[in-house]
Amino acid sequence: MRPEIDLRWIEYFRRNGFPAARGLSSGMEGAVYSLVENELVAKVWLGRNNSELRRLKTFCDALKPSGGAIRTPEIVDIKLVDGVPITFERFLKGDPLQTRLSEDASHADPFAVTALITVLEFLRTVPPLPAFRTLAVLDESGSPWRGATTWGDAIGSLIERRMQHYGSQLQNELPDLDRIRKGVRGFLRTRESVAMSLVHGDLCGANIMVDDGDRALSVFDFGFMTTVGDPLFDASISSAIFNMYGPHARQIDDEVTDAVVAALGYPRSALLAYRAVYSLITSNAYSATGEDGHFQWCVKMLKREDVRASIGL
After folding, report:
1. Global pTM exceeds 0.90
2. N vs C: which end of the chain shows fewer Cβ within 10 Å?
3. Domain with 128 in it
């Protein structure tokens, strides 16, 4: 269930030293409140515990020196209030890129695409520090790197765990699921020797802040699929989810992918293959029973001829 701004938390913050507290936004993992205008915010988390948020703070502390022109989250404190974890974070200026986009758009906005590519360029320069391997992904209890020595091992084992839980649902929609899994394993073997960097894992317009000229200022909301890995993973998925459900989603997907290939020099076939990887991993990320739009989006992606060809089908 998506959390909403809660008046009780606004009253709590106002009683505890922040008289100007107000609600800002809400997402799948929590609701955000402004405490000191343009300086300090608080996030009231849903589904995360104190230990996980301590790891997230360590992650953010390690990431901060890499920021340069792109700012990243800074957690200054963590509190547990009535069993609910709250992070206190520095305010990130700008507006979410998503507010400049329309689901009904017929073409990708070039300024938004440039902002996305700027963030992709930043992420691939961030070195694969040990602190970046510690975050749990999705609803798992630990990092995908537990027991893994290579990116292929880490992501391949994650896929197998997801398939043990949810594979039967995908099988109902994709009778050749075993061939798809085999093709994905083969593709991952070709990416074993790549230079790794920080992978955001959920790089969409809602997680990028821009200025009035649509120039990227910051990137945030790490944690959903954040780890160390192949930078092509982020490039692939951010292109695919730029516009997921609009009437011209496929046209925009192709346009953003073309722009990423041209700007970053990535092979298009590898970007397409990572769509299959992502779909196997996240098909049931938002619904254990597959009764949502994301599940159907993943099924549709795994049926696309170009995606299937990229993994040898």
Report:
1. yes
2. N
3. 95-310
